């Protein structure tokens, strides 16, 4: 499987060998071009995950792919040395791709461990990605409660276009300029024409639980940057930044913090710091 099948170039710049490779993984229902305002100021070669081509690869067997299936395919096609940036679901996929301990037994084989050992990431940045998507208990403030998610899932099955619009509003709730945020997001959102892909990847949100300790066990020196919006309506939490990056404050207001005009330059600066901090890890 060639990475060209679902890793699409996000910039026309021809990077030199000394410049970093970036993987950009978008959130549920969105295209990777949503990252273009961010990556414009970042050197290197930028590849974005195209969920449409990715889904086609995953369904060649005729089976409905799970979150673990998606992670397995990403792991098989990823280059050894790269910086990973994932937003929401994309952050969960990136985090899980770089570790394997928390995944199901069907991919906890020696072959899977060998692949993970081959991947030596320079750094990982997650944006609005929680350690789990669903709330674990009635007393927890982290994640979406199961009743709300179930209603959203049922709504998507019956009225996909309306539910996709509702998701735009959820993503931008808490933003300083929610209308502008919604307009920016809507131009990057897949339509109901991709309903099978969207329904399958929506279920992926319920199928993972991430743990920074497991990631550190696999890549002890990986640099992690985890950002959350202060008023994110989806309430993600649970992932942390590396101690070396703890002085970089998380900024943003909404789940779509990556498109907030006040946040973009701050996040670009943080990602540049991530490049500099990880430069010593290059072979």
Automatic annotation (TrEMBL):
What SUPFAM superfamilies does UniProt report for this protein, alphabetically? alpha/beta-Hydrolases
Q: Which InterPro entries match?
A: AB_hydrolase_fold
Source organism superkingdom: Bacteria
Q: Tell me the protein's name.
A: Pimeloyl-[acyl-carrier protein] methyl ester esterase
Species source reads Oceanobacter antarcticus
